[in-house]
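Subject: for your reference before the review

Hello V.,

The reviewers asked for a structural picture of the protein, and I figured it would be easier to keep everything in one thread rather than splitting it across files. Below is the amino acid sequence we used in the manuscript, unchanged from the supplementary table.
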Amino acid sequence: MMSAALYTSVITLFLGLTAWSAERVLASLRWPRRGAWLAALLLSVAIPAWRLPGALPQESPVQLPRPFPALRHATVRTGGPGRVGVRTLAARVRPSPGVRPSRHLWTTTMHKRVLLAFVASWGVISAMLLLRLLGAAAMLHRRAPEWAITEVDGTRVSVTDHLGPAVLGVLRPRIVVPAWFLTVSAQIRQSALMHEREHVRAQDGRWLLLSRLLIVLMPWNLPLWWLERRVRFAIEVDCDARVVRGGSPNAAYAEALLALAERMRTAARPAIGLFERRSLLARRIGILTARPQRWWRWAALPAYVLSAVSALAAVTLPSPPISAALGEQNAAERYAALLAAARFNDARTIGRLLANGTPDALAAATLIGWPWPTGVTHSGLVPPPDAAQRLAWMRRALAAAPRRADLLLLELNECTAWKLRCASAALLAQLGRLAPDNGAAALESLRFALRAKSGSRIDAALAAIGKSQRVDTYYTQRLSRLARALHQVGGESSQTAYEQVNDSDLSDSFRALLAVNTVCNPSSALTARRISLCRAASRALERGDTLLAAQTGASIALRLWPVGTQPHRTAARLHRQLDFMEVQSRQLLWPPGHHVEALFALADGKEWARILRWSAQCRSEQGLLRAQLRRAGLATDPPSGWRDPYR
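And here is what came back from the structure prediction:
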């Protein structure tokens, strides 16, 4: 964060030098100046936004101390039934040779404290600047109805007590003048009003507001404050030049500036006055009265060189980290430390689940932990339990509950995902006997047939799916039982338990449904028999217990049934219903208006525990989602004129 702020400030400084030298060149050519400063102002945000993402280190640009030394002696019991062996999880993370930790000069704790102070100061200063800007705007808006509106020398103005001459407003700018302005000479009035009209025509108020908002956004960027002041001055000088080119004599216009300066007060921040600071008035008058000299164009040659060099430096300046090698090493060691801590926590949870020994606890132990089933080493860490050992836990669970079709389907999915040698045919036959009206076994058979590229086996699996009543993956049953075991036995939070089981179920369902979607795709030159089988399979999928299964069935039916037929209309209604519920579910994560209490419920964990209770009562994911939407006060059925915004 601080390295990014320093990088942004240096870039802004180089851009300021570029604009300063470019201004010298533009002045020698008698061209407008504000373009150079406005470009520098915008690029001071654009270049860091382009260069910084992905370039910053994970922590400070110094060596971090060794992470999690206590994990070297952490142990967890794993294995089969009875007495089990002990596996040691050691976080063997060693700093690279030649790098000494800077524990005494700049520690991680010190870095975090300084970073916290920097962020807190940033927030306070930005809030104060924003409140000051909004307060001035509110004051002017509150006083505006009190001002009399009149016409002076053909220009519509608002007459104030002391404010002005100035331009107020951005979207609908108005010219305001003080009461004493009506008593000055006609020449002074005409010069001042011409100046303000030029501000309105050039829409200078928008650029000044943008520069002020950038200051509010990055108050720590000191060169940006200088840029903002130079933008204001360049805008006034350019406006003076346009007034002079419009017919006002230089000397008379300069005298008008001096006469008004004696009586004017400094304009409020949202206003564009005839001048901003008295110290800049002399420079403006000097620019107006200076005689053009041709030799200055050649004298500006060094400014050309400086402008090019500073612009090149701003674009090519390397972005943080300060030391790329050290930043990469810090990121690697931090990743290793976090991975070691995650492995230690997961191993402790697995130990509790295995010690419990219930079917749900054993099945939950196979789902949690490392996402790599065959084990991954990083920085010398001990590999996790392998896939065969996890499968042994799953078989223990199924042996204790042989009538649980959800556990049997889970074992079959894990065998496929981990590419283990399992008796898949026997598992499919057993799943078919346990749930003869469920097409989940046939759906798994379709996966194997598609992998073998056997057309007869694909047709047989599709026929079996079409003859079934539904295609259930036991989503809510698995979610309620396994997540509850993770929460109550393993000690995980309700949210973590829900996410671990839900993510595993989604991946299993996606692989199975992707197979049937591939087979029933019209682009694969479907035969008449295959189309008939896919239509029958789509009806069973539409009655599935997950949103993904029902949407897959409805999509297949929409593709394969002619428009206007009863199956096509039924699939269209179902697809529209599911799409609407999915769109509504996004408000559960960021609910607008009066649904904000659902967000706080998710934050404190109460909503996750409630979801686990509802999952035990609902047969399908659709029913669980309806319960959540009704709890948040959201509609579950699409209105007549609703259209999916994502289609």
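For the response letter, the relevant points are probably these. The mean pLDDT is 78. Strands lie at 74-78, 85-89, 148-152, 155-160, 166-168, 174-178, 272-273.

Happy to draft the paragraph if you're swamped.

O.
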